[in-house]
Design a protein that fits this description.
The complex is a heterodimer of chains A (307) and B (285). Chain A is mostly helical. Chain A has 14 helices and 2 strands. Chain A has helices at residues 2-18, 25-51, 58-76, 80-101, 107-127, 129-132, 149-172, 174-184, 186-191, 196-222, 232-245, 252-268, 274-288, 292-306; strands at 138-139, 224-225. Chain A has a two-stranded antiparallel ribbon with strand order 1-2. In chain A, α2 (25-51) packs antiparallel against α10 (196-222). Classes of the chains: A mainly alpha (307), B mainly alpha (285).
């Protein structure tokens, strides 16, 4: 079973490796955006789906990664190849801080505090116009000397695979077991010797670092970092992709990100309705199938095997 | 400068308390944070604008009708979406978050992107303390806000319905055993929460014109006030609103006006570090 999974993953990665050959520039762009959302929803899922900390600051952490690296590149002339790791580090440090801050809080309080953190970040970007260029956006240098969609596709693919491997390793090791224990019942987990504080803060730090990574690479792909990256709208997209795919499952956010991003590109052809259509799908999924596509498929399988 | 910041702080504080009251009520009774609170506020603003300006109704009648319609809309939302989520507060938060984005985009399609402003009730400005002139519309809005807050207080503390609400908020099961139909009560109180958002919306839209995405800022302030005061506490809501109103306006006057809203968030985070349940957080409404 484990071997088939590994082989299947290798085949999928291999297919992705040769994918740019069959795509035009526009389709390559859509794939790059898909991979960005895969990273974002998978890392948000690590936090919300596995430890039950529904954070609204995830897009803000992507923004922290992007702006750190972007500002360093513009003001200090630092190469993005060094800037992005620094952005990841900074996002991890802030994530560690916010995780500590939210320790005493559970559920709704945590969500609302992260919402506050995200708003503070947004206000800072808009106010410190001279450094961040506000809503105009910060023009940043790219990762490649010569701009090439295919090159960026491979960079994004490698980053996404690394992120997914980290997440997969975390949820399938002892740490993942502890995550689930903390989500189900904090007190019971603590009584069985799980270090609840360490686990919660760890999840926050790793997930923020991964968001920072995704944001940094994406920002240097777009060559323009705007407050759109750390916005609540972005947070909404990440949340609905995770919900539609299946929160609390490894594969769910990946399915959700690809389906919704490709779908929204199709709808865009008919006008600016894609957010609305998105929202309606997410709303009905969340209402009628809270475990997402993955949950539906699993339920279907369970039914077939019993009948 | 000091007196102006003080007046602004008090007026805005009352307005914040009014906006937060609906959130607080719904949290206290149902343990549901309505993320789409601001969108109900905006909807009422649009309704009152179109009833008064497009259909030419009397502004008072337009306001009443708007609040009534939003009350019904809120009850429908409760039946369709919220009823399934009881007991899982994060589930309802996620659902109402998605709902808020859906409503924002619907308003954008239906009402267009431009700000809409219902007619003012009063004209001119009043001289306050012999120091500066203050817009009459703002003073009137503050007065209307106080009236609504007082009505809610009387309803909660003096009527039979209020007693049922308080009983359910304290202990749902015991309230059920004593014959409270909590399903119907949930529907009514969610509708009432939305109607309070609508009341804030119709009172404030002549001052702050409504836009499709304007609800998010309203909801954020309301959440800050509610968390600061303690979820579900009536007095917490009023005191929290005044504190945030004063802090933001003094901060804007004496430190930096661009960071006005950051001061509220910072106060909130500090209070939560010391008292995670908020200032008045003993869950009594």
């Amino acid at each position: 079973m484990k071997n088939t999974k590994v082989i299947l993953a290798c085949i999928i990665v291999g297919l992705f490796g040769i994918l740019p050959l069959g795509l035009n520039v526009y389709q390559q762009h859509v794939m790059i955006v898909c991979l960005f959302y895969v990273m974002m929803s998978a890392s948000w899922n690590l936090l919300a789906g596995y430890t039950g900390q529904v954070s609204f600051a995830h897009a803000a952490f992507a923004g922290i990664g992007a702006y750190t690296s972007g500002i360093l590149a513009v003001k200090a002339g630092l190469s993005p190849w060094l800037g992005i790791p620094l952005g990841v580090l900074f996002a991890a440090v802030i994530g560690f801080g916010v995780g500590l801050l939210c320790l005493k809080m559970g559920g709704i309080y945590l969500s609302l505090t992260t919402l506050g953190v995200s708003e503070i970040f947004h206000i800072i970007i808009n106010n410190e116009y001279e450094i961040t260029r506000g809503t105009m956006g910060l023009q940043v240098p790219g990762l490649l000397v010569e701009y090439s969609k295919t090159g960026y596709f491979y960079i994004m693919l490698v980053t996404a695979i690394v992120s997914l491997l980290v997440i997969y390793w975390m949820i399938h090791s002892n740490i993942g077991l502890n995550f689930r224990a903390v989500q189900n019942d904090e007190k019971a987990a603590a009584s069985l010797g799980v270090d609840v504080i360490r686990i919660r803060v760890l999840a926050f730090t790793v997930s923020s670092a991964l968001a920072g990574l995704a944001g940094g690479v994406y920002g240097h792909y777009l060559l323009l970092i705007t407050p759109e990256i750390p916005s609540l709208d972005q947070q909404f997209l990440v949340l609905s992709m995770t919900i539609i795919g299946g929160m609390g499952s490894f594969i769910g956010p990946i399915i959700g990100a690809f389906t919704l991003e490709i779908l929204s590109e199709y709808i865009r052809g008919y006008g600016e309705y894609h957010v609305l259509v998105f929202g309606l799908i997410a709303l009905s999924m969340a209402r009628f199938a809270p475990n997402g596509v993955v949950g539906l498929v699993q339920a279907g399988w369970a039914k077939r095997s019993t009948s | 400068m000091f007196l102006l910041a003080l007046t602004n702080g008090l007026v805005i504080g009352i307005i914040y308390a009014l906006a937060a009251l609906g959130v607080s009520l719904v949290v206290g009774i149902m343990n549901v944070v309505n993320f789409a609170h601001g969108e109900f506020y905006i909807l009422a603003g649009y309704f009152s604008y179109h009833f008064a300006n497009t259909l030419g109704m009397n502004y008072l009648a337009a306001m009443m009708l708007s609040v009534g319609l939003v009350l019904i809309f809120g009850m429908i939302i409760e039946v369709l979406l919220i009823r399934k989520t009881y007991g899982d507060d994060l589930y309802s938060l996620i659902l109402t978050f998605i709902l808020s984005i859906v409503l924002q985009n619907t308003y954008l399609l239906v009402f267009g992107p431009y700000p809409n402003k219902p007619p003012n009730w009063v004209k001119g400005a009043t001289n306050v303390f012999g120091q500066f002139y203050y817009g009459n519309q703002r003073l009137a809005a503050c007065g209307a806000g106080l009236v609504v807050i007082a009505i809610v207080y009387l309803m909660l503390k003096k009527t039979w319905f209020g007693r049922m609400l308080r009983a359910t908020s304290q202990d749902r099961e015991v309230a059920e055993l004593n014959g409270v139909n909590t399903t119907a009560l949930n529907m009514l109180s969610f509708g009432l929460g939305c109607a309070l958002a609508a009341a804030a919306g119709v009172i404030l839209s002549p001052i702050f014109p409504v836009t499709p995405t304007g609800g998010m800022a309203v909801a954020l302030t309301a959440f800050v006030v509610v968390v600061l005061g303690g979820m579900g506490s009536f007095w917490g809501c009023v005191v929290g609103g005044l504190i945030i109103g004063l802090v933001e306006n003094f901060g804007a006057a004496f430190i930096s006006s661009g960071y006005r809203h950051v001061f509220g968030f910072i106060i909130l985070i500090f209070v939560l570090l010391v008292r995670p349940a908020g200032l008045f957080g003993n869950r009594e409404i």
